[in-house]
Write a structure and sequence with these properties.
The chain is an alpha/beta fold. It has one domain: Alpha/Beta hydrolase fold, catalytic domain (Rossmann fold, 3-Layer(aba) Sandwich), CATH 3.40.50. It has a four-stranded parallel sheet, with helices on both faces. Helix 1 packs across helix 7 and helix 3 packs across helix 6. The radius of gyration is 19 Å and the shape is globular.
Length: about 260
C-alpha cells in the first residue's frame, strides 16, 4: 500500500487517506483468493474505522475490483458510497488474457516502451527520480519473491514446513482473483483514471467498466503511460484530478 504514499501526501491533510494492506503480504500465507473474499475482509476493517458513510473508495489495478465489490456490499447495506474510483483497473470479467509466448514478448516490449515514453516527457532531474523509484520498486518485488521461495524450502528442526501456501507468490494470487472476478452491474457512478495508452492485450473500451457502470462512468485520461501514474511527477497530476473529484462528490450531499 506504500504505492499510495505520494498520492496521499499530495492530497494533503484535508483528505485523510487510509490504505488496506494485502492479506498475506507478510509471507505467512493465509491468502484471500477471490475478490468477494477480499471485499468481505477489507470491508470489516473499513467499518471498524468508520461504521457509517458516506464512503469514498478507490483501488489500483486488481484493487479497483476489490473497491468495486466493497461498494456493492455497502450499497446493499444501505450505506452511501459518494465516490468509487478505479486507478488503471481493468475489468477482465472472468476471463484471463491468453498470453502466448509472442504476447509475452510483445508485453515486455510495450512495458519498456511505456517507461521510456514516461521518462522522455521529463527534465533530467525528474527523469533520474522516476528511474530511481522504478528500480527500487522492481528490487523490492524481486526480493519479496525470493523470500517466499526461500521460506517454502526452510527446514526447522530438520523437517520441512507443511504449508499449503508455501512458495505461492501473493502477486499471482491477486492476478488470478482479478481475472476470475465477474462484477455485477453497479447502480452508482464510477470514475476511471486511465493512461493515455494501454497494453494491446487490454482491448476493451473504458477498460471494460462501461459494461457494468449503469450509474454512469466518468473517464479521466492522464498524460502518462502505464507504470507511471503513482510516480513523481505524474502523481501530482493524479492528485490534482482526484481532489477535484473528491470536492465534487462532497458537494453532492450533506455529510
Amino acid at each position: 500500500m506504500l504505492l499510495f504514499r505520494d498520492l496521499a501526501r499530495h492530497l494533503g491533510s484535508a483528505y485523510p487517506f487510509y490504505g488496506l494492506q494485502s492479506q498475506g503480504l507478510d509471507g505467512k500465507g493465509n491468502y484471500l483468493t477471490s475478490i468477494p473474499e477480499m471485499a468481505l475482509h477489507y470491508l470489516k476493517e473499513i467499518r471498524e474505522l468508520q461504521p457509517d458513510g458516506p464512503y469514498y473508495l478507490g483501488g489500483f489495478c486488481m484493487g479497483g475490483s476489490v473497491a468495486y465489490e466493497i461498494a456493492q456490499r455497502l450499497r446493499e447495506q444501505n450505506q452511501v458510497v459518494r465516490l468509487l474510483v478505479m486507478f488503471d483497473s481493468y475489468n477482465h470479467n472472468g476471463t484471463a488474457p491468453q498470453m502466448s509466448f509472442g504476447c509475452r514478448v510483445r508485453y515486455l516490449r510495450e512495458k519498456a516502451l511505456f517507461h521510456c515514453a514516461n521518462m522522455a516527457q521529463l527534465p533530467l532531474r525528474e527523469l533520474i527520480a522516476y528511474l530511481g523509484e522504478k528500480i527500487r520498486g522492481a528490487k523490492d518485488r524481486e526480493f519479496a519473491k525470493i523470500s517466499v521461495k526461500l521460506a517454502s524450502h526452510s527446514k526447522p528442526n530438520g523437517t520441512r514446513v507443511a504449508n499449503a501456501n508455501a512458495g505461492i507468490i501473493l502477486e499471482d494470487v491477486n492476478d488470478h482473483a482479478g481475472h476470475s472476478y465477474r462484477p455485477k452491474a453497479y447502480p452508482g457512478a464510477i470514475t476511471l483514471f486511465q493512461p493515455r495508452r494501454n497494453y494491446t492485450f487490454l482491448k476493451k473500451p473504458c477498460m471494460g467498466w462501461s459494461e457494468v457502470a449503469t450509474g454512469g462512468l466518468k473517464v479521466i485520461e492522464l498524460p502518462v503511460y502505464p507504470g507511471g501514474m503513482f510516480v513523481e511527477p505524474y502523481v501530482q497530476i493524479l492528485a490534482d484530478n482526484l481532489r477535484i473529484c473528491l470536492e465534487s462528490a462532497q458537494s453532492d450531499g450533506p455529510e
